[in-house]
Amino acid sequence: NMERIMAKTFSDVRPDHLARYEAAKHWLESNKTTGLVLDAGCGVGYGSAILSPSVEKIISVDASKEAAEFHKKFFSRENIHFINNDIFSANLNQTFDAIVCYEFLEHIHEAKEAVELFGTLSNVLICSTPNEVVRPHKMEPVNPFHVRHYTPDEFEDLLAMGGFRVKAKFNQVGGHDPQLRPGWDGKFMIAIAIR
User: Fold this and answer.
1) How far apart are CA 141 and CA 170, in angstroms?
2) Nearest to residue 3, comparing CAs of 74, 159, 108?
3) Could you check whether the bond before residue 141 is cis, i.e. omega within 30 degrees of 0?
4) What are the pLDDT digits (tens) for 132-187?
5) Residue 157 falls in which region: left (phi positive, over 0), alpha (psi -120 to 50) or beta
6) Which residues have CB under 8 Å from 142's CB, separation 6+?
7) Residue 26's CB: how many other CB atoms inside 10 A?
8) Which sign, positive or negative, has the C-alpha torsion 151, 153, 158, 162?
9) In what side-by-side order are the strands of the sheet with 36-40?
10) pLDDT of 88-110, one tens digit each?
11) Which residues, in sequence order, are bridge partners of residue 98?
């Protein structure tokens, strides 16, 4: 089990992760939210690369040095600015048209602070996290890089801490089936939240 997907090509990335970014891309395009986008906890930045043709500029943030090196080698694009730092030290003092934050909040103890920060940076948050009801954090195999998982209610409460209310709910049943379905009864919950 690893902390992040160390991919060199899109085909190395799990299909459900790719589908999430494709869905975000589609939503950003249909809502003309395509100026400046933040990809928070982006790993190697394959998702930023998926979004990049549709948006003017992406700020991609990840604390891992190894991820930053992979990004530079395999996923850098002209309109992506990669910041190799944690989200709180990255000096994100501009406002964003949207923030994409996939499979990151369960990795950090400061999820509340992160969502509060997001609320100061954007009115749109596209966010995902594992569903504690379907995939309990302590169920074997335990992911050692996850701090906790959230129930649907806890996820909604967490987003509300940044002033976000959930506008649309989607779920995925797991890595083998990337399709996004309405509602939050799958293994991964995906929220489109607005302020």
Assistant:
1) 24
2) 108
3) yes
4) 999 999 999 888 889 999 999 999 999 999 999 999 999 999 877 889 999 999 99
5) alpha
6) none
7) 12
8) positive
9) 80-83, 57-61, 36-40, 98-102, 124-130, 188-194, 165-172, 181-182
10) 999 998 999 999 999 999 999 99
11) 37
Q: Sign of the CA dihedral 69, 73, 77, 78?
A: positive
- Identify which of 80, 103, 102 has the alpha carbon closest to the alpha carbon of residue 149: 103
CB pairs under 8 A, 24+ apart, for 10-18?
A: 10/46, 10/49, 10/50, 13/46, 14/175, 15/175, 15/176, 15/178, 16/172, 16/174, 16/175, 16/176, 16/177, 16/178, 16/188, 17/46, 17/47, 17/102, 17/103, 18/46, 18/50, 18/178
Give me 190's structure tokens.
Answer: 């995906």
pTM exceeding the 0.90 threshold for the entire prediction: yes
Q: What is the pLDDT of residue 61?
A: 97
